[in-house]
């Protein structure tokens, strides 16, 4: 997805699945904590339905609508974390797995203090 799009411009857009079936309306946009790039959209799937999270990276903004490359049924079955709250890294990982998207885990900081050289050995 284009990274130069203001996430506020996505709110209120209609969203469609890969078959062209209407999913709903973009209710909220979630930014990546590290980069500030829009990463997830919460799609309101009906008047009295919950919001479903969809990844923005494989999605496309085409002619004023959000095209999501997944079936409506898969989107509807996405984990429900509620909206208006921060997504934890664990919740994001669950969403990535739900959509079958591979992401590289963040690098682990590993300190092997036993390998620190003694200054007298240098």
What would your notes on this structure say?
There is one protein chain. The protein is an alpha+beta fold and 122 residues long. It has one domain: Photosynthetic Reaction Center, subunit H, domain 2 (Photosynthetic Reaction Center, Chain H, domain 2). The protein has two helices and six strands. A six-stranded mixed beta sheet has the order 4-3-2-1-6-5. This is PRC-barrel domain containing protein. Residues 8-72 form the PRC-barrel domain. One of its GO terms (biological process) is photosynthesis, light reaction. Pfam families: PRC (PF05239).
Present the secondary structure layout.
Layout: E1 14-16, E2 22-31, E3 38-44, E4 51-55, E5 60-62, E6 65-67, H1 72-76, H2 89-98
Parallel strand pairs: 1-6
Antiparallel strand pairs: 1-2, 2-3, 3-4, 5-6
Strand composition percent: 25-35%
What is the fourth-level CATH superfamily?
A: Photosynthetic Reaction Center, subunit H, domain 2
Overall mean pLDDT stands at 83
Q: What is the terminal-to-terminal distance?
A: 51 Å
Radius of gyration: 19 Å
According to DSSP, the number of beta strands is: 6
Could you name the CATH class? Alpha Beta
Query: Which fold name corresponds to the CATH topology?
Result: Photosynthetic Reaction Center, Chain H, domain 2
The ordered H/E elements are EEEEEEHH
Helical segment tally? 2
Biggest β-sheet, characterized?
Answer: 6 strands, mixed
Q: Largest beta sheet: what is the strand line-up?
A: 4-3-2-1-6-5
The assembly state of the depicted protein chains is single chain
Number of domains: 1
